[in-house]
Amino acid sequence: MIEISHLTKKYGNIMAINNISFSVQKGEIVGFLGPNGAGKTTTMKIITGFMAPSSGVAKVAGHDVFENPIEVKKRIGYLPETPPVYSDMLVKDYLEYVARLKKMPSNKITKGVEQALEKTNLTQVHKRLIGNLSKGFRQRVGIAQALVHSPEVLILDEPTVGLDPKQVIEIRNLIKGLAGEHTVILSTHVLPEVTATCKRIIIINKGEIVAEDTFEGLSSRMSDTRRFYVRVRRPANFEGHIKSVSGVRSFKFANNSFEVELDKSDDSNEKLSEVVVKSGAGLLEFRAVDVSLEDIFLKLTTTDTGGVA
I want to staple 247 with a disulfide (CB 3.0 to 4.6 A). Which of 11, 261, 263, 298 is the partner? Predict the structure, then answer.
């Protein structure tokens, strides 16, 4: 559905993105991650036809973004980080206006607006001025305008900014519900949002793709160790027992509990659990600690103050 091939963008002497390539299949929800200045927003602006690349090709549904921009725009809904809403318009009037801008057939506009209002839970405020809405509701209006023409592709840049926890859950469920019907690229700094909604993750750093896989795949590839949480009743002298386990890389102790890092091997948990039980410390809890997306992200990226968004 989306094909990015050798895409490069320069701003004078600054390289915003450098020869990146990736694809997104129909119906996928893909998380697009990177630190500030990594090139995320530049990439999304190119995909949506907002700006031209210095070189390379971007295609949506087989149409080149700059050779067939009208065909591409028909197929894309875009929510930039700052929602493109008009504060002096009523919610419903604004969505009808957006639908006309997107060349929706006049006989489909009413239904499209109603569906967008319903999906984003805006029906109860559709007659209110956008400028009088809370920030969270304005964010929903931004999502509604991206959805109003039922596009094949949705590009969402920080879609849950300004929402309260209940609204965040609602928007996450909305995004997950779009899988299969829509192809979604989700860019966000809220890493739990990615693990909650996305099937696959692309990480960009300093204008280059540094990882592309499922979360499980990245977790397996990035870690050469395994971590375990151990809680015991009697921690005195327990440290010596932990040190006796072969392959221990490190351990931390706090409040009768230990987090132990071992070399990755098929029997590492068996060795550790055996020593814990034989120590007589009174085992209360023993479990593996998963590698988080935050751990992976920090390993792959560094702060780049000279970059371009």
Answer: 263
